[in-house]
Fold each of these.
Amino acid sequence: MKNLLVMFALTILFAGCSTNNSNSAARPEQVPQVLAANEAAAQARLRSIVTAEMSYQFEGDGQYATLEELVQKGAMSDPSQGKLTGYRFAVKVKPGGFEATAVPERFGITGKRSFFVDESRTLRAADKGGLPATASDPAAQ
């Protein structure tokens, strides 16, 4: 299912890319469907991270793990080495929990919204201008 979602997102990405040719110095613009697909893939990846964190915490000593530790322990795969469909992912362990973020690699081109999730499992999203989302941002819709 995850591979199917990634393939779908990549198909949309390659089929829907466009550039503004009226001004050669202009920044490339992305069609809304591509941004939506990238954002959906980022949200799905964060949900996978939550699942891996819950399993790691339950099966281990009650602790959470960084993305690198989750991959090393086999709790999840990371063929993209912290990147997926135009987003960068980071997982930070904090006392009693974790924080995972997804930030567009190229704001406005690969995505507009940044995402955040922690041990509460509430996915949060906001247009942060390319900066990470936080626990104070609204729940994703």
Amino acid sequence: MKIQVDGPIIKHWQRGIEIVRSGRGYSKAELDEVGLRDLRNVRNHGIPVDPLRKTNYPENVERLRVVAKTIIESRESKTKTKNHNSKRKTDTKKNKSLTKNKKPTKQSSE
């Protein structure tokens, strides 16, 4: 599921003037601060990542907080449903294996 994210900003100084421009992607430090550590998952959600950047701007972190909340909530809901379904599947497998392995017992004729 692709999420719409505003692009990151980058600041640098040129002749005593601070210049702000748009960047290629968010740095690993910004993603870590928000709680998104899995870069593959972040890229799958449509968030651009620039592995070369090392800076951490508070403006970028604030932009990411809104998006990170939805990603983390969706991840938690998926894990809850997976755990719930996996327990049911294992219980049914155990019951089936017990019924298959039962052999009829011979009754002694007296």
Amino acid sequence: MDPHRYYARMRKDGHKLVSVELAPGVSATLVIDYRTAVQILNDPEHFPADPRAWQNTVPADCPILPLIGYRPVPARTTGPEHQRYADVHTEAMRALDLYAMHGHVEKLAIELVNSFCTDGHADLIKQYSFPLSFAVCNILLGCPPELGDRIAEGMSKIFENIDAETGSQIVGAALMELLALKRSTPGDDVTTAMLQHPAKLSDEEILHQINSQYGAGIEIQQTLIANTLLRILSEQTLGSNVLGGSMATRDALDEVLFSDPPMSNFLITYPRQPMLINDFWLPANQPVVIGIAACNTDPHINRGNILGNRSHLSWGLGSHRCPAQDIAYLVAQDAIDQLLDAMPELELNFPGDGPTWRPGPFHRSMTELPVVFPPSPPLNIQPLRT
């Protein structure tokens, strides 16, 4: 499915905001105009991210509540509460050793490539982008693999809207075990940094912070890697430029973040009172969803030449801008570079006409990324950095 065809249809009559349903009976407004999105995201006083007033109006079993319902995290709070949580995230991320992370990603990439390089075929989501992103997240948070396995299982249920409540219970129980481990055995990791932060978050609050880190660190990170690999392998000019070194992988990542970001619709706010914007009335306490992909490709601001342009909204904007974008860029770029260096003859091998995209109102993620390549022996090299 090509969502940009639908965005063009929405714009045909001059629409900048469109009434949509996020789930049966759950009304919302989708913003498809870049300047309108910037106006909303820079006005948290009138457009707070706290969903509680809206949440009180929907059934407890609403299928999207596990993903967008209230949690004490930066993305779901406003004002002093938001700032308190945002400071914890920002300072925990700032303390990370990015140089050491290069070595971790390189080692993980080599191990994963060696696990399938003799086969001549692979699913680069199941066998590469997902396990690499999952392992990186475990390293950042100081989580043992056995706990991480349970967290990944729960996160998958939440993002797929398949038994999301069970997914939340699985994640919550595993994260409580992680907190207990980090209290007894502190480490050089994000979880320990949050536990030791002067804000003195409660165990429940820290559980929610780590939950949100896993949601982005696994699901969004692996999708960014996979969507960029799809673009490199399917577009001859871009692929040749990246493989030939005339275009940086960072620029390929930004092309994907403009047109096919992992979260194509998100950055949700809830106006406190009815608001009139561009001759469109926004009801009070009803979700206003930023169509990130639609806004990024708004023809009024995106005329096709985006090389070196990082004005996309895929990392958020204003006070709710993602604090982990530096590490996300690093992991994605290193993962892609390592794979393409080791296997430059990758070719897409979809069984039908192209990729199948996972259903859902928020993400833009494939079900699989099958490739074929000449079988080769395992890499017999050591990571350059440790």
Amino acid sequence: MWWNFVGRTQEEIVQARDDWAKGTRFGEVKGYDGAPLRAPALPETPLKPRGRVR
């Protein structure tokens, strides 16, 4: 898990972040008056999976 994105691979996290930035794939929060939060930049080092591998 990175920020609020869950993925099995670095590529899935990158895709989720891109989708969030574009406003696709994720719904909107009803009743929230502010602009959507921006996802922070990805770390420069690859994300490391944790836990057991299936």
